[in-house]
Design goal:
9 strands; about 20% strand; Rossmann fold; about 35% helix
Length: about 260
């Protein structure tokens, strides 16, 4: 991580161990004083729920994997929050590659910025194929792969890479938050989409699009970096995002992916 980037880190983000509950406590402290990023997370949650209603059907458990400090249950209490790191703030401890749910017991698996932390994505897809009911599915928000995102993510985190040229989906992990490839969703759903569809024909990729909250997400500093503009600029930033909408494939920082479990498979 460069000297300038390190200088912009929030004091709570200067952790030597990213893989324990201390990370959650640090992020909660940052979130408590940063309305701008809280609003972005709230919008992401609302987008999850809107697209679930549009594309998925059936009944069953609704589970958020890697829920973090702004879990989906804050927007919809029916969604179970879970994480690989045990914490009293979550309903469940769930390893996405070895889920404890019964076959067909789950309607929806949500994941915000957690998919790229799965060291063996194929194990996750096999487990999702098992636990999801037909008509249910997976909704993911992940780092985008456009020019601006590709430039930015390569320079942000010393603990995570962004390698669009990686030969394999698998990444050796040192812990739940260490060693990830933030370009994983690009590898699986864009570069290797044909291979994914051949290996997992039970899943239909029904929607994938960039998210528009890039200006506010970037200038808020997220959970790790200092906010660069005051909250009173939020209305102006929203207008900027709207005006720049034709260029969101160039500027977006995140995208959302909806996978549906095919019926009859």
């Amino acid at each position: 991580m460069g000297a300038v980037t390190n200088l912009l880190l929030e004091k709570e983000a200067r952790l030597t161990n990213l893989d324990g509950e201390a990370r959650l406590q640090a992020h909660a402290a940052v979130l408590a004083r940063k309305r701008m990023i809280s609003d972005v997370f709230k919008e992401m949650n609302q987008t999850f729920l809107f697209l679930e209603a549009c594309y998925l059907k059936g009944t069953g458990l609704r589970v958020e994997l890697g829920a973090g400090v702004f879990p989906l249950c804050l927007t919809d209490p029916d969604v179970k929050s879970s994480d690989l790191v045990p914490s009293t703030q979550f309903d469940l401890v769930v390893d996405a590659q070895h889920m404890q749910f019964n076959d067909g017991e789950v309607k929806t698996l949500f994941g915000q910025n957690c998919f790229h932390h799965f060291p063996e994505p194929r194990k996750f897809f096999k487990e999702a194929r098992r636990v999801l009911a037909p008509g249910g599915g997976i909704l993911l928000i992940e780092p985008y792969y456009g020019p601006f995102a590709s430039l930015l993510y390569k320079r942000l985190f010393a603990s995570e890479g962004f390698d669009k040229q990686a030969a394999a989906w698998e990444v050796p992990m040192q812990g739940p938050m260490s060693g990830a490839n933030q370009a994983l969703s690009y590898l699986v759903f864009v570069r290797d989409r044909t291979a994914f569809e051949k290996e997992f024909p039970e899943f239909e990729l029904v929607m994938m699009k960039p998210l528009r909250s890039y200006a506010r997400y970037l200038l808020s500093g997220g959970l790790n970096f200092r906010q660069l503009v005051p909250d009173l600029m939020v209305p102006l930033l929203r207008w900027c995002e709207l005006l720049l909408a034709p260029f969101e494939t160039l500027l977006a920082l995140h995208h959302i992916i909806v996978l549906r479990r095919r019926e009859g498979t």
